[in-house]
Design brief:
mainly alpha
Length: about 150
């Protein structure tokens, strides 16, 4: 095989030397493009993971919202039921005969007097009893009845 003449090799060598800066620029551009693609892929992976986490959180929040909605409806129904019970209880109290009403009142007066005696002795009376009795009548009512 014959190597080309010296002037042809010199021409080829000169052409290569002229193209070296262009080839180096293309190599840098290629490396920058590879870095950009790598960075974009990494960002994409992070966003996919974040999206997965947000979807999981959304499912949990929807389930929790459903649980809270059911609890709210249950409590609404309970309030309605208790309201009916209170209304029914008030209606039953109104239906008591005068004698039953008087006996009930006397029983409350006895409880009130026992509470007063216990407090005078320095005893402790529960607040539940105190509230229900004080809402019914006071000491003046006891003396007025007698």
């Amino acid at each position: 095989m014959q190597i080309g003449s010296l002037p042809e090799v010199a021409v080829l060598s000169q052409e290569l030397e002229e193209k070296i800066p262009l080839i180096e620029e293309q190599r840098r551009s290629y490396e920058d493009a590879v870095e950009s693609v790598t960075s974009i892929c990494k960002q994409n992976d992070e966003l996919v993971e974040e999206s997965r986490q947000l979807r999981t959180e959304l499912c949990e929040l929807r389930k929790s919202a459903g649980d809270h909605e059911r609890e709210r409806e249950r409590l609404r129904q309970e309030v309605k039921d208790l309201s009916r019970q209170v209304s029914s209880s008030r209606l039953r109290r109104r239906r008591l005969s005068p004698l039953d009403q008087r006996l009930t009142r006397c029983g409350l007066q006895v409880c009130y007097l026992l509470k007063e005696v216990e407090e005078a002795r320095g005893g402790v009376v529960s607040m539940e009893d105190d509230v229900s009795l004080n809402n019914s009548f006071g000491a003046n009512d006891v003396s007025e009845q007698n």
